[in-house]
Amino acid sequence: MLAEGTLDGQVAIVTGGGTGIGLGIAREIGRIGARVVLASRSADHLTAAVEELRRDGIEASAQPTDVRDPEQVDRLVATTIERYGRIDILVNNAAGNFVVDADKLSVNGFNAVVGIVLHGTFHCTRAAGLEMIRSGRGGRILNLVAAYAWTGGPKTLHSAVAKGGVVAMTRTLAVEWAHYGIRVNALCPGPVDTEMSRAQLWAAPEIQEQLLRSVPVGRFGSVEEVAQAASYLVSPYADFINGEVLVIDGGEWLGKGFAG
């Protein structure tokens, strides 16, 4: 756990920051000093999240944003600059996914997920990155991805394609933007215990047991563990890490070859 004050004076935008992992990351980087701007399509989620962070003593604000819309993303960045005068950190966490056989995946379903995950990450990265370049201070960009971006993932064609594109974007921009002082990395959580995952991914006990067997350490991850890893990657302690994908999944993806 990083010390309080590590990110003093820094300003961070966290997309998909109203709930779950996004909110957890916002809380952790806020705890160590960053002022955080939460972005989400749900104004209700944002209102509750900002109130929660402020009760914890974190300076937080919100900007309702659909990351699929570049005009809304530009407004997010402009509003952040107007309010705080700078952007130092961008966490691209906004995502969408559902489980479906590839032969039953509709064009609209495919486009919806790719629009949020891949196009949305590009829109946010472009808008915030241009501001980081203009400021001359550089910055840190962190993208949330999934291991099936490189292992493949049955019933997740849309998300796997989108996350694979985000991995490529991460590594490409890490090279192109390093001379601006911008580091670009990715964080890859495995199965993490959240309210949404309990309801949507392993609601049935047999599914939960099957998934647990696929994780060598024998348990699910926590939001706090993911948030601490994220805070490290956007902190000065990781300034020589660039273009990497940090996997935090208890060894799940490594076990694919022998555990199914």
Task: Give your account of this protein's structure.
It is a single chain. The chain is α/β, with parallel strands linked by helices and 260 residues long. The protein has one domain (11-193, 222-247): NAD(P)-binding Rossmann-like Domain (Rossmann fold, 3-Layer(aba) Sandwich). Helices cover 47% and strands 15% of the residues. The chain has ten helices and seven strands. α1 (20-31) crosses α9 and α4 (107-135) runs parallel beside α6.
Give short descriptive properties of this protein.
260 residues, alpha/beta, Rossmann fold, seven-stranded parallel beta sheet, 10 helices, 7 strands, 47% helix
List the topology elements:
Blueprint: E1 11-15, H1 20-31, E2 35-40, H2 43-55, E3 60-64, H3 70-84, E4 89-92, H4 107-135, E5 139-144, H5 148-151, H6 157-176, E6 182-189, H7 195-200, H8 205-213, H9 223-233, E7 245-248, H10 256-259
Parallel strand pairs: 1-2, 1-4, 2-3, 4-5, 5-6, 6-7
- Mean pLDDT over all positions: 94
Main sheet record: 7 strands, parallel
Strand content: 5-15%
User: Judging by the overall fold, what is the CATH architecture?
Assistant: 3-Layer(aba) Sandwich
- Specify Rg, calculated over alpha carbons: 18 Å
SSE class = alpha/beta
Sequence of secondary-structure elements: EHEHEHEHEHHEHHHEH
